[in-house]
C-alpha cells in the first residue's frame, strides 16, 4: 500500500481522533487539524495544526502538501446541544464555513480526494415519526425536511461537496453517520451523545438509586461502535467509483429505555429510570444498510452490547478520575 499524505479535519474530536490514529497505524503520513487538541489520548500523528479551519491562513497550513482530506470538523454535540435551538446560528455558520474553506482551498492546492462526514440528521422528520418503522434509506432524503439546523447544514454541505466534485473533477466520498459511540469521546458537559450520557449517569448513580432519561424513553435509535465507523469510512473512501452519500450505521435498533437498561445491567447496579422533559430529536431512527451492502459489500457486525461494555468501562474510569480530582 502506497503511503499517502492525509489531513483529518476534526482530529481533536471523537471520531476524527480514532480515524487519524487508524490511518497512521496503516502507514500513512497523517496531519490532524482542529480548534483543540484531543482531550483523552495522544494521537501520535506526524503533524497537528491547532486552529479554526474556516480561517484561510489555518486551512492553507493544514492543506499544504496533502493528497487526501477526511473532513470531520464540525460544530456539533448531542441532543442537549443540537435540539434546543440555542446554538443553531453557530452550528450552521461554523460548520458551513469550515467546509467552504476546506473545499475551496483544497481544490486550489491540488487535493486528490475528499471524504465528508454527513449525518443521519439529514433525513426528513416525516419519515421518523413512527419509532417502530423509521425510514432512512439514502433515497428518502428528498424532498428535504430535516428536524434540526444541524441536519440542514449537513445536507447543504453534502450538496456543496457534490457540486465541487462535478465542477472541478475531484473525487468526493460522503457517508451519513448514525449515532457513533465509544471510548475517548465527550462524556459530560452538555455535548455528549446518548450512550456516553447514559453510561455517565449509571456510573455516577448509587446502587438502589435512579437515573434520568429525557422524554418517555420510547424513542428509538441505532448506535454504531466507533471502530466499525472507522472501518466503514475507509471502505467508502477507498471505493473506486461509488461516491455515496451512504449510511454508515448499525441496524440494531433499540429504545432509549432499552439502551439504559443494557447499561444498568452491565454496571451490576439496581437502578430505576425516571423520565423527565428534555430535547428528543426525531421519534425513531435506524440505519438502512441495503445500499452499502450492495455497493461495497460491507456492513457492521458488532452487537451493541459489546460496544456498550467497552464504553461503560471507559466512562466509569473518567467518572472515578473526576471524583479523585475534585477531592
UniProtKB/TrEMBL annotation:
Record lineage: Bacteria, Pseudomonadati, Acidobacteriota, Terriglobia, Terriglobales
Entries under PANTHER family matching the protein: EPIMERASE-RELATED
Protein name stated in the entry: NAD-dependent epimerase/dehydratase family protein
Coiled-coil residues: none
UniProt keyword list: NAD
Domain NAD-dependent epimerase/dehydratase, first and last residues per copy: 6-249
Keyword NAD annotated: yes
Superkingdom of origin: Bacteria
Amino acid at each position: 500500500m502506497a503511503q499517502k499524505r492525509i489531513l483529518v479535519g476534526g482530529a481533536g474530536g471523537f471520531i476524527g481522533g480514532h480515524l487519524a490514529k487508524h490511518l497512521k497505524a496503516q502507514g500513512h503520513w497523517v496531519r490532524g487539524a482542529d480548534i483543540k487538541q484531543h482531550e483523552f489520548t495522544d494521537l501520535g500523528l506526524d503533524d497537528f495544526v491547532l486552529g479554526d479551519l474556516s480561517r484561510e491562513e489555518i486551512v492553507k497550513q493544514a492543506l499544504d502538501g496533502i493528497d487526501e482530506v477526511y473532513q470531520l470538523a464540525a460544530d456539533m454535540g448531542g441532543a442537549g446541544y443540537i435540539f434546543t435551538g440555542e446554538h443553531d446560528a453557530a452550528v450552521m455558520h461554523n460548520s458551513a464555513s469550515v467546509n467552504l474553506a476546506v473545499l475551496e482551498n483544497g481544490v486550489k492546492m491540488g487535493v486528490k480526494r475528499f471524504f465528508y462526514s454527513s449525518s443521519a440528521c439529514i433525513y426528513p422528520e416525516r419519515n421518523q415519526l413512527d419509532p417502530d418503522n423509521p425510514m432512512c434509506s439514502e433515497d428518502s432524503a428528498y424532498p428535504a425536511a430535516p428536524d434540526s439546523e444541524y441536519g440542514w447544514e449537513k445536507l447543504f454541505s453534502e450538496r456543496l461537496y457534490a457540486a465541487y466534485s462535478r465542477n472541478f473533477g475531484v473525487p468526493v466520498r460522503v457517508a451519513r453517520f448514525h449515532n457513533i459511540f465509544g471510548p475517548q469521546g465527550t462524556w459530560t458537559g452538555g455535548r455528549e451523545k446518548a450512550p456516553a450520557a447514559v453510561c455517565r449517569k449509571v456510573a455516577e448513580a448509587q446502587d438502589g438509586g435512579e437515573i434520568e432519561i429525557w422524554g418517555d424513553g420510547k424513542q428509538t435509535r441505532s448506535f454504531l461502535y466507533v471502530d466499525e465507523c472507522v472501518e466503514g469510512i475507509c471502505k467508502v473512501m477507498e471505493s473506486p467509483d461509488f461516491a455515496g452519500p451512504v449510511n454508515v450505521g448499525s441496524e440494531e435498533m433499540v429504545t432509549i429505555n432499552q439502551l439504559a437498561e443494557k447499561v444498568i445491567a452491565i454496571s451490576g447496579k439496581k437502578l430505576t429510570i425516571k423520565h423527565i422533559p428534555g430535547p428528543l430529536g426525531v421519534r425513531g431512527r435506524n440505519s438502512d444498510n441495503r445500499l452499502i451492502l450492495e455497493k461495497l459489500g460491507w456492513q457492521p457486525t458488532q452487537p451493541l452490547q459489546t460496544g456498550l461494555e467497552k464504553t461503560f468501562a471507559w466512562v466509569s474510569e473518567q467518572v472515578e478520575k473526576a471524583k479523585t480530582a475534585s477531592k
